[in-house]
Design brief:
Length: about 120
Amino acid sequence: MTWAWVAVGGAMGALVRDGAARWRGPVAGTDLVNRVGAVVLGLALAALDAGVLARPGHALVGIGLAGAMTTFSTLVVQVVDPPGPGRRGPDWSRLVRETVVGLVLAAASLWSAARLLA
């Protein structure tokens, strides 16, 4: 039955991702959902580890929602072939920046939530 929780979370995450792209534009929307998704995943992992979130909840939030909301593949495509007018070629600094920011946000949210839930 885990697959159903992942599917429901995935549908929610896809809608959030689409809404962010429409609201902020393709580049800012991708960065926004990747950052928020990193925080959501960190919180979900801490809650699962602390016993506050059961496995079905982690399947819904951590795997489904955060997994469908975030998108490394879109980030890479936007880095290699930036959308919009005035494109100047690949933006490798954005790839490095957003990867580091995502890792820091995930680690910080995991660490902070683990301390709060302990």
